[in-house]
Amino acid sequence: MRRIEQVRKTLRRRRLDALYLTNGTSMFYLTGYSFISTERPAALVIPVDGKITFLGPRLEKDHVPLETKLVEEVKTYLDYPGEKHPIEHFADFLREMGLAKKRIGMDNKSGASMMWGYEGPSIAKKLPDAKLVDASELVPSLRVVKSVEEIELIRESCKWANLAVSLLQEYTCEELWDAAVALEATCDATIAMKKTLGPDYQPKRNVYPINAGFRGQIGEMSAIPHSMSTKRMIKKGDVIIAEAAVDVGGYSCELERTMIVGEPSPKQKRYFEVMTSAQDAAFQAFKPRAKCSEIDKATINVFKKAGLIHLVEHHTGHGLGLEGHEPPWLDIGNEQPLSAGMVLSCEPGFYEIGFGGFRHSDTILITEEGKEQMTYYPRELENLIIK
After folding, report:
1. Residue 228: which residues within 8 A CB-CB, separation 6 or more?
2. Which end of the chain is more exposed for a tag (fewer CB within 10 A), N or C?
3. CB of 243 closer than 8 Å to CB of 212
């Protein structure tokens, strides 16, 4: 309820009568209610004075009260597109709430998330007397600095990511398919996690508690940082990138490690050392009030000195929390200062097509004194050789 009050305080300051949200992550952040977003429009309406109300498809009607007590009223339509379009229903719902002629902050002026081929009229056309104001930054701005409770959830996530990556490394060997290794490691880590955390544990934002694997980043495909899969088996000499994320209360860390199958070549050793040196430079630059751009520049300087800057394909990192990527961005073009309570990935990497990619990712908490590395899996090459 503390977050709802923060929102209402901001609404009063901006002289807005309500906040209308279509973003599922924002809805979860404020109410603890998570659902599968589809083509069917859904919205959360938070009046300054009045009941917090969910607008959405009928198939969510019985789901809402199971997940949260903060949503006080649920208004539904049967399905999309329906004989009467959902946005027509939403306009009627807002009239019932006395908001048809009020000032409403919106995270999306269309009134729907526009998922999966959705088509429909804008809510503005159906409520011509309402004043719709852009408030798309309101909830995301609240999420940038984490509370003590959020940090503890991420810290717990780090523990289980550590186990998942450990199992990935243990189970990996030549002539196995990375997808099969990922499934086995994920299953075993998930079972251990559920046994330890107890009967009340359940994932809040994902279908599965743990997402661990390689995403096909095997051998030459490790040079494709957003690879999805590969058809070939693991073989000696491969550079592989193992990674894990774990849902604890809807929050997750990020943990990635570059590993080598068999004895590393001299070139693999050099590239690995440059990668870890870049990450070390970022670690040293993390502190309150340091600009995001300064973290990125620290890693860029390492890559330039090594003569490998032409192989860099992304910035140093990004915010973490309810989403895998969220602000702030550790990018040379972002002058935003860091603040205590921010949680970020630190993942400088570089990629040579036909050879391999080199990237560790750790979860970093900005503290009043500097930074805390929340993930703790070994980073040194000698600990990441698969024999």
Report:
1. 215, 216
2. C
3. yes
Contact criterion met (CB below 8 Å) for 229 and 179: yes
Quote the pLDDT of residue 67: 93
pLDDT value, residue 110: 86
Listed as ranges, residues in the chain with pLDDT below 70 are none
Which token pair is 139? 């909830």
Which amino acid belongs to residue 98?
A: G
Looking at the fold, whether 308 and 178 belong to one and the same domain comes out as yes
Distance, CA of 263 to CA of 165 (rounded, Å): 20
Return the structure tokens found at 182.
Answer: 């990922």
User: Given this model, what pLDDT does residue 169 score?
Assistant: 98
Close Cβ partners of 210 (under 8 Å, ≥ 6 residues apart): 160, 161, 164, 186, 189, 190, 193, 244, 245, 246, 247
Report the 10 Å Cβ neighbour count for 91: 22
Q: Which domain holds residue 306?
A: 148-386
pLDDT of residue 92: 95
- Our measurement of the distance from residue 217's CA atom to the centroid of its chain's CA atoms, rounded to an integer in Å, reads 20
- pTM for the model stands at 0.93
Task: Give the C-alpha separation, 178 to 171, whole Å.
Answer: 10
CATH of the domain at 123: 3.40.350.10
The pLDDT of residue 25 is 95
- Strands 53-57 and 73-77 turn out to be parallel
366, 342 in Cβ contact below 8 A? yes
